[in-house]
Specification:
- It contains four helices and no strands.
- It is an all-alpha fold.
- The chain folds into two domains: 29 residues, no CATH class; 63 residues, no CATH class.
- The relative contact order is 0.07.
């Protein structure tokens, strides 16, 4: 992901060349990317800054495991009523059955 902090260092051609999507806030809205920035900060503080990866494959595997097994299923999020995203989604689905 390319953030607004780095977009001026990267041309649109380079962004497309690597199959990436630039992430930039809408004019006058500095909060639309805040949830993602918060997630990256959490990931770095809870996992990445405490590890030294030998290979990209190892980093990919461990970060994927952190997201899928811990962050989404076990880690409690204060914005979700101290529930995990998985528990929050299950509760929401029970309360909003398909028509």
């Amino acid at each position: 992901m390319i953030t607004s902090y780095t977009v001026n260092l990267t041309s649109p051609h380079q962004v497309r060349q690597y199959g990436m999507t630039a992430s930039m806030s809408r004019k006058g809205n500095c909060y639309d990317n805040a949830p993602m920035e918060s997630f990256w900060g959490t990931l770095k503080n809870e996992l990445v800054h405490h590890r030294r990866y030998e290979t990209r494959a190892q980093a990919h595997r461990e970060i994927s495991e952190y997201i899928e097994l811990f962050y989404n299923r076990q880690r409690r999020h204060s914005r979700l009523g101290n529930r995990s995203p998985a528990a929050f989604a299950q509760q929401w689905a029970r309360q909003h059955p398909p028509a």
